[in-house]
Amino acid sequence: MIKMPAHPTWIHLVTGLFFMTASVVHAAHPLVSDDTGTQGPGGYQIEVNTDWLRDAGVKTRTATATLTRGITETLDVYLDTPHTLSRPSGLNDIALGLKWRLFESDGLSIGLKPELTLASGDQEKQLGDGRSGAAITVLTQYEVGPWTWLFNMGSELHRYSSISSQDENRRYIHKASVGLTYQLKDDWLLVMDTGIASHATKSEKKDPRFALLGLIYSLSDDAELDVGYKKSLNTSEVDHQWGVGLTYRFK
């Protein structure tokens, strides 16, 4: 995979686009790459998931609840509330965002996902940045028969309130990922994902890379259960991560 430059020119373009499109790395669990699908006018989706992480012998647990509402056929608004369940536990920084599918033709679709991060996490417990931030992601999806390819590229803006965090951590985190899904049967979906991101710590030279494998089972037309395993591809990424999730849609 191509390594992203420390200060690419495209980040200035997409960051500027974010502030033009929204006056204000979240994908369907267990995937990291997001698709371009939306809920439709008046449609709601609730996603609840939890993950167990192990890195250098240290175990942590996280959980996330996401509420999405369809505004138009191609536009969603969502609220994402992540929590840390292991100590120090508490609410992390909440995210409010949009997903806009701006192009679709012959199996190819492109979307834009601007996001505002609210400083709701306790910075002293390392649960948040201490100031609001922003993110922008370009979503690309291509469907061929039972196969669906996903490609995401984006960036996060972190505004730390403490001087020490500003000195130690990067202001911009750039991300890219490629996902692949395969419809095994009517009820089973195999998912795979891999990606890279800038390391949050300035002193770290290696960018975290991961690979992921999972399954999504359709309980009904409006509900899915998922399980996934994420593995590090270098020493900068979390060693192991297991997760389960539940998705429910309604009007």
End-to-end separation: 41 Å
Number of helices: 2
Beta strand %: over 45%
Number of strands: 13
Query: Biggest sheet, open or closed, and with what strands and sense?
Result: 12 strands, antiparallel, barrel
Biggest sheet strand order reads 1-2-3-5-6-7-8-9-10-11-12-13
The structure class reads mainly beta
Low-confidence stretches: 1-25
Radius of gyration: 18 Å
Tell me the count of domains: 1
The level 1 CATH classification is Mainly Beta
**Level-2 CATH architecture:** Beta Barrel
Find the CATH topology: Porin
Mean pLDDT reading: 91
Fourth CATH level, the homologous superfamily: monomeric porin ompg
Characterize the overall form. globular
Task: Write the element-wise H/E pattern from the N-terminal end onward.
Answer: HEEEEEEEEHEEEEE
Structure description:
The chain is mainly beta and 251 residues long. The longest helix has 13 residues, at 9-21. It has two helices and 13 strands; from the N terminus they run αββββββββαβββββ. It has one domain: monomeric porin ompg (Porin, Beta Barrel), CATH 2.40.160.40. It has a twelve-stranded antiparallel barrel.
Question: Care to give the gist of this entry?
Answer:
The chain has one domain (9-250): Porin, CATH 2.40.160. Helix content is 8%, strand content 56%.
Secondary structure: elements and pairs:
Elements: H1 9-21, E1 44-55, E2 58-72, E3 75-84, E4 90-91, E5 94-105, E6 108-118, E7 133-144, E8 147-157, H2 163-168, E9 172-183, E10 188-197, E11 209-220, E12 223-232, E13 240-250
Antiparallel strand pairs: 1-2, 1-13, 2-3, 3-4, 3-5, 5-6, 6-7, 7-8, 8-9, 9-10, 10-11, 11-12, 12-13
